[in-house]
Amino acid sequence: MTFTSYFDGSSAAGSLPLPRLEGTGGRKTSALVRGTGSIGARHLRVLQQLGVDKLYAWPVRPGTSLGERPDIPATAELVEAYPDAPLDLVVVATDTRRHIGDTLEALGHAPGAVLLEKPVAPAAADARVLLDHPRADTISVSAPLRFHQGFAVAAELLPRLGRVTSAQLASQSWLPSWRPNRDFRSSYSARKEDGGVLRDLVHDIDYPTMLLGAPTELHSVLGSGILGIEAEESADILWDSPAAVHLRLDYVTPVKTRNIRVATDEGALVWDVVRNRVALEWPDAESGSTGSVEAVFGDDADVDTVLARQSLSILQRAGIDGGTTMDRFRPASLAEGVASVAICDAARTASASGKAEKVVW
């Protein structure tokens, strides 16, 4: 097979209809979202668009009204406790420091599945109680980048491109522009105990480990002082599994960049998340230049579509039969989510010590 025919032969590059929960045989589906901030509201909208029949919204603050929340579906029922009815899905979308307690409470009501927002916890050690829980296998950790069709194609093609020799990942943005109507210095991102670029951009730690394998030890340099916040503003992480892997994460760059370039002994693979494209490059012996071919996945630009793929995948894995199959995607398990937090922990330790530190969890 030639490089130019790789996309044609990819099972993950075919047509992908917009997610919709269908054909459940008349069975009514239900979901509860704990936390009604911006991400909780988005989950509620996505679940409604997906076709979940009954939605419950449970704010963190008692007495909260949803009457002036146009970002939350009017059909969502406001609750202040778990309903007596069984639930197919619970989404935990509260602050990071609440994740463990809120997830344990959710598990106590035995829903079909739990979707825990990232990161799992402020530190990997905090998550041991979840890992030891008898229902731990019902927990998935939100990792939307895994549900980009571009990533599914990249993950399928990479093993065909020879031996990996190096990889460079960049995820860079400008924190003050994340929430233009709110002072970024008062956001959770600015807090040292549960914020910082490592936790905020943990998605960009998850997907390279899925592609290349997780490190056992790493070097790291953390940066601060540009935004004037308590938490780290940038992180450069380096490990050597299976070859030299360098991650640059920051929110001090106004021009947004999010991509990975993996070099192999036959060519290179590039996934550009901002431009929704996957490119293959190889040396052209005849011309002495570089040959390339690319594919663009425009639907990946829609955040709600990507989250709907994740939700549908988790519901299907929990036994809900209906909708377009999500077999080309794989949700992040609890163990994988904790492993990503452990890499964050090791990066802080390595930056402080100035030497390689083991990833422990």
List keywords for this structure.
361 residues, alpha/beta, 9-stranded mixed sheet, 7-stranded mixed sheet, 23% helix
Would you give an account of this structure?
The chain is an alpha/beta fold and 361 residues long. It is built from eight helices and 16 strands. The chain has helices at residues 38-50, 99-107, 128-131, 149-157, 197-200, 203-212, 303-317, 334-353, and strands at residues 30-34, 54-58, 77-78, 89-92, 113-116, 139-141, 164-174, 217-223, 234-239, 244-250, 252-264, 268-272, 277-284, 289-296, 332-333, 357-358. A hairpin with a 4-residue loop joins strand 9 (234-239) and strand 10 (244-250).
**Separation of the first and last Cα atoms:** 41 Å
In helices, the fraction of residues equals 10-25%
Task: Give the mean pLDDT.
Answer: 94
Shape: globular
The stretches of 5 or more residues where confidence is low (pLDDT under 50) are none
Assembly state of the chains shown = single chain
Can you lay out the helices and strands and say which pair or pack?
Layout: E1 30-34, H1 38-50, E2 54-58, E3 77-78, E4 89-92, H2 99-107, E5 113-116, H3 128-131, E6 139-141, H4 149-157, E7 164-174, H5 197-200, H6 203-212, E8 217-223, E9 234-239, E10 244-250, E11 252-264, E12 268-272, E13 277-284, E14 289-296, H7 303-317, E15 332-333, H8 334-353, E16 357-358
Parallel strand pairs: 1-2, 1-4, 2-3, 4-5, 5-6, 7-10
Antiparallel strand pairs: 6-15, 7-11, 8-9, 8-16, 9-10, 11-12, 12-13, 13-14
